[in-house]
Amino acid sequence: MKKIFLSMILSLLVFGSNEAFAQAAPGDEMGNVSQQKILIAYYSYSGNTAAVAKAIQAKTGGDLFEIKSDHAYPAEYRPMTEQAKKEIADGFRPKLTTKVGNIAQYDIVFLGSPNWWGTITPQVSSFLESYDLNGKTVVPFITHGGGGVQNTIRDMTAQCKGCRVEQNGWTGYGSRTSGIQDWIDGLKLVP
Predict the structure, then answer these.
(1) Are strands 108-114 and 137-144 parallel, antiparallel or unpaired?
(2) Where do the structural domains in the chain lie, given as residue ranges?
(3) Which fold has domain 37-186?
(4) pTM to 2 decimals?
(5) For 99, left (φ over 0), alpha (ψ -120 to 50), or beta?
(6) Rounded CA gap, 36 and 23, in Å?
(7) First and final CA of the chain: distance in angstroms?
(8) Which residues lie closer than 8 Å to 111 by C-beta, 6 or more apart?
(9) What pLDDT, in 10s, does the model give residues 59-113?
């Protein structure tokens, strides 16, 4: 009986110390990523940001989530951009029609948006207002048609209350995904 009891105690000590060791290695603020849950949330108007989100998912194995709203845009390019410009200037936040079931389970949130008029889309702003991301790491990925990053990451950081926004976000032209693997490896978020 004593041998069984000692064996159980020893097992608990061994497994318990392995678990504690796996949680955070010295100098690794992200801890053991293999134990962290990753969400890849994105809004994509034309499909470019969706293509990048899928490339990130292929590398990280995270859960993919498309941010959708009840809000429509004109089919023609110029009227669509003018509407988006006015919405951004007015601080418009559309109602979201998709919902993350349990945001609390995620440690890292890759958050994707097109660059619209130098900032993130109203849909991504609605996402940031709808969820408690306090204590989470948010990794931006931005697509653009020639405008680059501009204020997208700065604005995402300002709107993301209590979270840590990775300032080395992905910025890519259109749906191009070359270099994503090196970028993710450089973040040291996934094994």
Answers:
(1) parallel
(2) 37-186
(3) Rossmann fold (3.40.50)
(4) 0.81
(5) beta
(6) 9
(7) 43
(8) 41, 42, 124, 127, 128, 138, 139, 140, 141, 156
(9) 999 999 999 999 999 999 999 999 999 999 999 999 999 999 999 999 999 999 9
